[in-house]
Design goal:
Elements lengths: L1 E11 L4 E12 L4 E5 L6 H8 L7 E6 L2 E2 L5 H11 E5 L10 H6 L9 H14 L15 H13 L5 E5 L7 H18 L2 E5 L3 H5 L3 E6 L2 E2 L2
Parallel strand pairs: 3-8, 3-9, 6-7, 7-8
Antiparallel strand pairs: 1-2, 1-4, 4-5, 9-10
Helix pairs in contact: 4-5, 5-6
């Protein structure tokens, strides 16, 4: 599903050069649930952003379903990202002025679907995360765990083949975090969704199929 070959990422300013990733070689199979761990500053989020086509590597090759993406135009990258990839972030990134169901619809706006079709898909996604009773609420009226459920619904509403989750349980207590992980496991097992999850929690990582560790931008296992 995702192939990284000798990926390198360097951030440069006028006075300093920072090597964020070096020599990353990773094949992620369709339907796999992979976790990425490492200390702060080890390159975990950078790696996730490159997989999600939000950032471009400085060197190396990246393929999504055997398609080389490094040389794609911005419009093609945006189209591929919208169709193939869903994102879940630690801080939810919900829009407080929009209702729950309107937040979930956002990725579908770029697909030129009718309002009725968008609403139907959003309601189906909210049902999968157990929030059909909160569709008209606003994010400020929800708990942290409920906000993360909304974020997952938004990530899956377009039926992506890949979900990239950056510390999805980081702002939650252990009970809520476990519930969020259960949703991701269910999506992986029952819908064959490929999931890559960055986490600091060893217990969460153990529940995934494979663990990749980073240190100072390099793989250590």
């Amino acid at each position: 599903m995702i192939k990284l070959n000798d990926i390198e990422k360097v951030y440069r300013t006028d006075s300093i050069e920072t090597l964020a990733l070096k020599g990353i070689n990773l094949n992620i199979e369709k339907g796999e649930f992979l976790s990425v761990m490492g200390p702060s500053g080890s390159g975990k989020s950078t790696l996730l952003n490159i997989m999600g086509l939000l950032d471009a590597p400085t060197g190396g090759e990246l393929e999504i379903e055997d398609q080389p993406v490094i040389s794609m135009s911005d419009s093609k990258l945006a189209h591929l990202r919208n169709r193939k990839i869903g994102f879940v972030f630690q801080s939810y990134h919900l829009i407080n002025d929009l209702s729950v169901v309107d937040n979930v619809e956002i990725p579908l706006i770029y697909r030129r679907l009718s309002g009725a079709k968008r609403r139907k898909l959003a309601m189906a996604a909210l049902e999968k995360v157990g929030l059909t009773a909160r569709t008209k609420h606003f994010p400020t009226q929800l708990s942290g765990g409920q906000c993360q459920r909304v974020a997952i619904a938004r990530a899956i509403v377009g039926e992506p083949e890949v979900i990239l989750a950056d510390e999805p349980t980081g702002n939650l207590d252990s009970v809520m975090g476990g519930e969020i992980l259960d949703i991701l496991v269910d999506l992986n097992k029952n819908e064959n969704t490929t999931i890559v999850m960055v986490t600091h929690d060893e217990n969460m990582a153990r529940k995934t199929e494979r663990l990749v560790r980073l240190f100072d931008g390099s793989q250590v296992n």
